[in-house]
Amino acid sequence: MGTKRIRIGRAAALVVLLGGAAASVAAARPEPPGVVMYKSALCGCCGKWASHLRTAGFRVVVRDVGDLLGIEARYGVPKGLGSCHTALAGGYVVVGHVPADLLARLLRERPPVAGISVPGMPGGAPGMEGGVGGSYRIVAFDRDGHTSVYATR
């Protein structure tokens, strides 16, 4: 049996080569971090926080629930750190209007905490824009309920 030569033009060869390289780059690109958010169906600011995270590149799944206090209890949120929504991301509990850059920092640095919280609903936090803004704390907490200031804004 003889071998057959197939002639393709330079442009076609380049497309074949680049197509393979593009597929390799796409396969190497990391998946955006996933967040599962539990909220009340009636809460509008929670949807704004989810949009804030999506704009920052997070994948967000929203689950409407009727018992937010039960969700906080299930995931060990200490008393006084609750808010209008609780989320899970990368093995951490994320409560309230945590800025996306701080969530990304948490997932990158992986500190030995159970989660972080922006207690209450402070004006100026992501999803709470338009209200009277001021500084607010982002609080880290561990499984035993110990807290520390993770950041301030």
How much helix, percentage-wise, in residues? Answer: 25-40%
The average pLDDT value, as a whole number, equals 86
Q: What are the low-pLDDT stretches, counting only 5+ consecutive residues below 50?
A: 11-18, 20-26
What is the H-and-E element order?
HEHEHEEHEEE
State the CATH architecture: 3-Layer(aba) Sandwich
Task: Please report the number of helical segments.
Answer: 4
What's the CATH C level? Answer: Alpha Beta
Q: What is the number of strand segments?
A: 7
Question: If strands are numbered along the chain, what order do they take across the biggest sheet?
Answer: 2-1-3-4-5-6-7
Structure description:
Helix content is 31%, strand content 24%. It is α/β, with parallel strands linked by helices and 153 residues long. The protein has one domain: Glutaredoxin (3-Layer(aba) Sandwich), CATH 3.40.30. It has a seven-stranded mixed sheet, sandwiched between helices. The longest helix is centred in the N-terminal third of the chain and has 19 residues, at 10-28. The radius of gyration is 22 Å and the shape is globular. It starts with 9 loop residues before the first helix and ends with a strand.
